[in-house]
Amino acid sequence: MTVTTRKEGVVVPPLSEAVIARSAAALRKLVQLGDVLRFPVLQMYEMLWVIDPQARFEVVEDHLMGDDDARTYPDRALILLRQSVYDGAAREEGRARFTMCHELGHLGLHRGVSFGRINPSAPPRIFQNSEWQADVFAAHLMMPHSLLSAYGHPMAVMAVMADFGVSYAAAETQLRKMKKGVTKLAS
Amino acid sequence: MSEFGKAVQQLRQLAGLTLFEVAEKMGMSTAFLSAVENGRKRVPDDFVEKLGRAVPAAQAQSNVLESLANQARKQVVLPLPSASRQDADLATVLARKFNNLSDEQKARIRAILDNYNP
User: Fold this and answer.
1) What is the pLDDT of residue B77?
2) DSSP-derived 3-state class of residue B28
3) Could you give the CA distance from residue B51 to residue B12 in angstroms, rounded to a whole number?
4) How far apart are CA B30 and CA A1, in angstroms?
5) Does position A33 have pLDDT exceeding 50, yes or no?
């Protein structure tokens, strides 16, 4: 089973935002990066064994990846990254960094999980969607509530982008969730 | 992953260097270095020498690394990203059989494949 990033996703057992945020926080704590604003994603990939002893990643030439930025094979604990994504993350591009964290979500949350195809006539709830879960994991890994809560001011989006190394879209979404109190319940 | 690939990765990680940093120092793409580490590409002849410049700890081990590199050059790694468990098992069985084929048998297989895929 392959999980391909940024497609429709597959049905997985439901996980709440709080549970996902807690596992992201646990990973940060495990690698002793609880207080670090800019999550060092390339370094994290050099120690994937922290998440799973079998886990590894490969960087693959763009033309071999089709339209996919990345692919995770949870059953084999393998992450494939498009070269432009890995190199982009190395150059601190927020979106590429997010993609790499999103794949960590698949690795951490979807190992040994059984997948179902989405039935269009009975669409699953959002918290059963593998892509939603991996996105939420990435957002909390990169912007945990404990660190984000200092960014309540109106111009916070730019500051969050710069300090946490995330895209405008990711910063804006997570700040909006924080204002609604969604991120707090998770901490 | 070959023994050689494992050794390279370990030296790199013990030096605290990412794939990106070492690829840059060795003057190759991250995809290429990753492919060599994972046995998807043949180890270039000057690889160990370049590695020694990027990861100083590799210099002391260059003899071991060269011999592992030679071993790795005699292997072929077949990536099967979307293979089922059964497909992967089949490939393993075929690979094992390959070593026992006679030259005549190999020539017959080759002829059929070349004919099938001209």
Assistant:
1) 67
2) coil
3) 9
4) 26
5) yes
Which residue matches tokens 């690394």? B65
**A50-98 residue pLDDT tens:** 999 989 999 999 998 888 999 998 888 999 999 999 999 999 999 999 9
> In chain A, what are the domain boundaries?
17-180
Residue A41 has pLDDT above 50, yes or no: yes
Alpha-carbon distance A181 to B17, whole Å? 39
Q: H/E element holding B107?
A: helix B103-116
Contact, B65 vs B51, CB < 8 A?
A: yes
Dist. CA B96–CA A34, nearest whole Å = 48
Nearest CA in chain B to A61: B31
Pick left, alpha or beta for residue A83 (phi over 0 → left; psi -120 to 50 → alpha; otherwise beta). alpha
Report the residue of B14, B20, B37 to disrupt the A interface, i.e. the one with the largest count of A CBs within 10 Å: B20
Nearest to A148 by CA among A27, A21, A17: A21
Question: ipTM of this predicted complex?
Answer: 0.87
Q: Measure B40 CA to nearest chain A CA, in Å.
A: 10
